[in-house]
Amino acid sequence: MTKDQMKKLFSSNIFLLSSRAKAEDNIEEFYREEMERGANVLFAPDFHICASNMEPLTQTVKAAGETAFSACVIRPPEGGLSLYGGDYQYKEYYEEIKQQATLCYEAGVSFLLLGGFSNLTEAKLAVFAAKEACPLPLCVGLRFNDEIKLAGGIDAAMAILTLQTLGVSAVGVLETENADDALEALSQMKEFTSVPLFALPNVSEFMTPEDYADYMAEYINCKCAMVGTFNGDARYTAAISKALWQTEPFLPDFHEVHAITGPGGILFYDFKNQTVSENKLLLEIEIEDEKTVVSVIDKLIKAKTPPVCFNSKDLDALVAAVQLYPGRPAVRSDEYGEIAAKENGALVLPEGV
If you placed Cys at 307, which of 4, 260, 265, 315 could pair as Cys (CB 3.0 to 4.6 Å)? Predict the structure, then answer.
């Protein structure tokens, strides 16, 4: 399935993701039963993808056949990114995601769910790595805390304004603690989104399938085109399917939002590159070479600075800064730098603006 095909499908359908099979299940039989309950996307068992553990994924793809779509979650590598106190340097993190995306593509899945990211830098790196690995549509699932924030105070509006510039097919919540937190995050994102949203929150043991199904109308009004639960079972699939009967999607009109974001807020521009938001603070940062990028980004994260504009004619340094910055930065550069910046989601500002 291509990105254009997925966009067309989202425009006329609401996808219901299946519950996930467990290791002890007969996977093909489990997913056939999920399709009978109304699931049209088979959500492969959650596991760390490696060449020696592909059987659950290949069985999911086989079960989907020509009747349903198959999706696999690529989760944040355990240990996390060093910028946030983790074990991975950013190039190692990038390569880990790239390897997993390649394996999923070779297994034949319909699209990838890059899921469960609690900071924006790791989500961005996952998108860039997966795009390099394969042409599959990409959906990005964020895991917000109980304040509806990602690491560094990034809120849902900042997240959607950043991620939708990267060429993804959908953005949403995955593993957020409960249905209400998911709804709050979606409510913030729907105001600015130019891509469809989705909801795959956790549900507690006290929320019945029927109680959760009552959220479907509100999720769809928040421009969701894909719904399910991350930890629910077959009863939830059936209840959601019943709630979605003859429901039409309510989607963005795929407009472009001209803005840059960062830990310190959002800066909106008109299409003549004039600021139109109350916030007009822009921090200009000169990037000299790639060796300095990580330390610069680390300082920006800790200081929660206003949105930034990176100035650099070093192409490798500029791309690294744009990819690692927890938001959508602006860029000033030469012609080659501007092309690379746009390809990586940055907003190009001419001199004098």
Answer: 260
